[in-house]
Amino acid sequence: MDTPQIIAPSRAPSSGVVHSNTQHTSRFTVVGNHLAQHSELSLAAIGLGAHIQSLPAGARIGIKHLAERFPESETRIAAALRELEAHGYLKRTRERLPSGRVVTRTVSYNQPVASATPAGAPKSQPEPKPRPQPKQQPVPQPQPRPVRPAPGAPAPEAPAPAPMPRPEAEKPAPASEPVSTPVPPRPSLPRPQVHDLDRHRTALDLLADLRRHEPRLLLGEADICRLAPAVAAWFERDAHPDVVRRTLVADLPEPLIRPAGLLAHRLTALLPPPLPTAPAEEPAPRRDPLQNCDGCDRAFRAPEPGHCRECRSDLKEAA
Predict the structure, then answer these.
(1) d(C-alpha 70, C-alpha 75), whole Å
(2) Residue 228: which of 214, 209, 243, 213 has the closest Cα?
(3) d(Cα 285, Cα 137) in Å, to the nearest integer?
(4) pLDDT at residue 118, rounded to an integer
């Protein structure tokens, strides 16, 4: 009889990880150890690089999209993308479409590009620059002696001047990028010409009371103090508080995101002009007081007591 052979079982390592691998037949991605065991990349960058390599072509890998997918913050994801880009696993370029929109093109490499240093490979040391050699002075060449023409011989023709180089064809000027139009500065809030404490207090009360008429116009204390001088400027131009309130509350947009900014715009853009000066009233014509005639006791107007017109005419005829 043959002696049975006893095969000793494989001994597991006393410490460290033990692999229990199953061969994949579908839905798997091959990731090189140069990425999975990179000595300079952070763990977040290695995991993000493996995730990007597992995505199909055309998948979105923007920072905001990845932040919605994973619990890491946008700052940490952006730092991991910069690490992958620095080590040659990712390349991002910005391109301008014919419509003028700027988009980001992203290329993922399962092998780092040639410009990046491979994982685990020692960085190449820069070659020493050669020492500059002293410049050698050119040896002067002997100039040929001019040949004198024989007497009676025709003088040699002068060499034709070298043709002037033609100017190169002007290259078309590169298309300039669209110049961004500067945003005009915002106009400052109106302020009253004369500081009136009563008007200022009324303006503070009006702004704080707006939330009773429109709950969306809930203002903070700092915004109320900033907008109060503009409301006082409206009061200075004889605008009634009810008119100011209706102007600020009417036709609010939906949704209302910045109520203080909307009120500042309306107080500035819809500021009424000052009322024109009223013309001075002409004094009423002065009329003489009523007097009683000394002759007929009839009432008449005259600056002083005396006789009326009829009595004076009778006196003239009697005289």
Answers:
(1) 12
(2) 209
(3) 115
(4) 44
Residues 6+ apart with CB under 8 A from 110: 30, 31, 32, 35, 53
User: What's the one-letter identity of residue 150?
Assistant: A
Of 83, 257, 4, give the one whose Cα is nearest residue 265.
Answer: 257
Task: Give the pLDDT band (50/70/90) at residue 123.
Answer: very low
Say if residues 236 and 199 touch (Cβ distance below 8 Å).
yes
Torsion from C-alpha of 132, 134, 135, 137, nearest 10 degrees:
-170
The beta strand positions in 118-233, using DSSP E, are none
Identify the CA nearest to 225 among candidates 258, 189, 194, 249.
Answer: 189
Tokens 């009432």, residue?
A: 299
pLDDT for residue 209 is more than 90? yes
Gap between the Cα atoms of 136 and 131, Å rounded: 15
Choose the most confident range, by mean pLDDT, from 102-116, 168-182, 265-279. Answer: 265-279
Distance CA 233, CA 294 (A): 64
Does residue 141 have a pLDDT over 90? no
Tell the burial category of 178 from Cβ atoms under 10 Å away from its Cβ (0-12, 13-18, 19+): exposed
**N- to C-terminal Cα distance for the chain?**
192
Residue showing tokens 């020493």: 128
Give the phi and the psi of residue 104 in degrees, each rounded to 5.
-110, 125
Q: DSSP letter at 59?
A: -
The 3-state DSSP class for residue 137 equals coil
* Residue that the structure tokens 């005829």 belong to: 317
Tokens 């669209």 identify what position? Answer: 178
Question: Closest Cα partner for 76 from 36, 42, 103?
Answer: 42
The type of residue at 24 is H
Length of the chain: 319
